[in-house]
Amino acid sequence: MPNGHTQPVSPLKRVLMRTIVELTLDIIRLTSRAAELFLHQTGAEQRQLLQVVIKNAIWQEGELRTSLFEPFEILRHSNRESHRKERKINGSGQNFGIWLPTGDSENDAGG
Fold first, then answer.
1. pTM of the predicted model, to two decimals?
2. pLDDT digits (tens, 9 = 90+) for 26-79
3. CB 78 within 8 A of CB 91
4. Across the chain, where does the E strand assignment appear?
5. What gap in Å lies between CA 96 and CA 102, rounded to an integer?
């Protein structure tokens, strides 16, 4: 029941009141800057993040092989599959060779 007095909103309540869209946009912005932000962290902060993400890491045949904790492993698999599928689709932005002139002036743009 309103008593005419406005109570201050706690920081936690402010966060909870934000819309899903705002949170989603914040996550997208942060994700797009993750590599940049990682490079500016201290070694201890970088190590802490890697301990959250990387389940196991070994050197094998001169390469670092990693397995990730869930959901990071699911995201890695999804990204690999998306990239693999994009390479198969002409015009997906991955195959720039389709836009190069072929030497056939009838089929080249402006020819």
1. 0.49
2. 888 888 888 899 999 999 999 999 999 999 999 999 999 999 999 889 988 888
3. no
4. 54-60, 63-68
5. 13
Q: Are 68 and 57 in contact (CB under 8 A)?
A: no
Upper half-sphere CA count for residue 38 (Cβ side, 13 Å): 11
Do residues 69 and 55 touch, judged by C-beta distance below 8 A? Answer: yes
Contact call for residues 38 and 46 (beta carbons, < 8 A)? yes
Q: What is the DSSP letter of 103?
A: S
Residue-wise over 66-102: b if at least 16 C-beta within 10 A, else e?
eebeeeeeeeeeeeeeeeeeeeeeeeeeeeeeeeeee
Residue 34's closest CA among 17, 52, 46? 46
Judge contact between 87 and 95, C-beta under 8 A.
Answer: yes
- Distance of alpha carbon 14 from alpha carbon 33, whole angstroms: 24
